[in-house]
Amino acid sequence: MKRNVKQKKEACKNGLLMQGLLALYKWLQKEWAQWMSNKTKSISKRALTIALVVFVSFTSSYCIYLGIHAITGKSKGNAFTVTSIKRPRHLTVSGDMEPTLPPVSRRDYERIQKFRFYMDSLARSPSGRKLYDSIMANRPELMDSVRYIEEEYLNFKNQ
Description:
The protein is an all-alpha fold. Helices cover about 70% and strands about 0% of the residues. The chain is elongated. The relative contact order is 0.05.
């Protein structure tokens, strides 16, 4: 119950904060528009139109110049270049390498087998079942890992 009340209070605070920021943003927009309007009051409408046309003409002509210059590539330093991608030499070589050492030592393998037998005995006995269940609850993929290590060792041994 207290969590819901706390979340509602935080939501109200966040909502008020957003409303305050939005109001501040609108106020700044209004002030900027008024300031710009006051600065351009003395300039005639015709002068403003001419200034706009000149500005748009210069910027658009410069953009067109940049585009044409990039496409034609008259100057090699600024033109786009196509560089081929070279494949590394080791890419064609198979990644299968024969391991020289077993992934698990014989001693570790025996310890893992003893652990698996111990866990099996825990699972079978009524008194050990509770301990087994708690271990499995905390480490649900433990026995999968044990089986995987045993299989890797046997696969390496059979090679």
